Amino acid sequence: MTPRPGHALATAALAALLVGCGGGQGDGDAAPAPSATATAAAPPAQAPAKSVRPLARSVPVGLRIPSIGVDTPVMSLGLASDGTVEVPPVTDDDRAGWYRHSPTPGQVGPSVLLGHVTVGRYGDGVFRHLARLHRGDRIEARLRDGASAGFTVTAVRTVAKADFPTDDVYGDVAGPELRLITCGGPRDGEEYRDNVIVFAELSTTKGA
């Protein structure tokens, strides 16, 4: 099993995971809201298949989420010089980023991808409509080796940044899972108070 990041690393990650999701120029973190809120659950959907074989490690190069019109290249993100997680640059060709210290999509463990909800003067970010996803929606990650990993959404949560569920996002899991993260909720000035987190499980593979 791929080990989860150490607690200190995970704490640093959540502290600056989505610096730049605000409506301004995309730099600076939001003041956290005092309490968490939960997104209402969609009606139950068919559970993802449990017998799908995990994929070999291969860096993600693309991400498709048909129900919200996302089809984006994926860049690799690491840690900044201050130990916080890098975020995609604020540009007019905004794209998602994969946190390279997490498993690749399809490997056992939680693969973490993040993106902006807004990108300053450029308008909407690649994950602008992430909160509209529901249980049962499909996500496809395209991998560098030509394989693809299909995931089924199991939950969508909106939480205050102060209450970021570190263990739920980075903690060990029994199979291949996906986490998509952006900002959301009400705005405090130019910054969003909350994070939107999508949880998904591997349900199909191709070209493996």
Description:
The protein is mostly beta strands and 208 residues long. It has one domain (7-28, 48-206): Sortase (Sortase, Chain: A), CATH 2.40.260. It has two helices and eight strands, in the order αββββββαββ. It has helices spanning 7-16, 166-170; strands spanning 60-65, 70-77, 96-99, 109-114, 138-143, 148-160, 176-188, 191-206. Strands 1-2-3-4-7-8-6-5 form an eight-stranded mixed β-barrel. The model is unreliable at 1-20 and 22-49 (pLDDT under 50). Keywords: Hydrolase. Residues 28-49 have a biased composition (Low complexity). Residues 26-53 are annotated as: Disordered.
Question: Layout of helices and strands, plus pairs?
Answer:
Blueprint: H1 7-16, E1 60-65, E2 70-77, E3 96-99, E4 109-114, E5 138-143, E6 148-160, H2 166-170, E7 176-188, E8 191-206
Parallel strand pairs: 2-3, 4-7
Antiparallel strand pairs: 1-2, 1-5, 3-4, 5-6, 6-8, 7-8
Short characterization:
The chain has about 210 residues and is mainly beta. It has helices at about 5-15, 165-170; strands at about 60-65, 70-75, 95-100, 110-115, 140-145, 150-160, 175-190, 190-205. It is about 5% helix and about 35% strand.
Number of self-contained structural domains: 1
- Note poorly predicted spans: 1-20, 22-49
Might you state the CATH topology name?
Answer: Sortase, Chain: A
CATH architecture heading: Beta Barrel
The CATH first-level class comes to Mainly Beta
Gyration radius over CA: 16 Å
- Strands, total number: 8
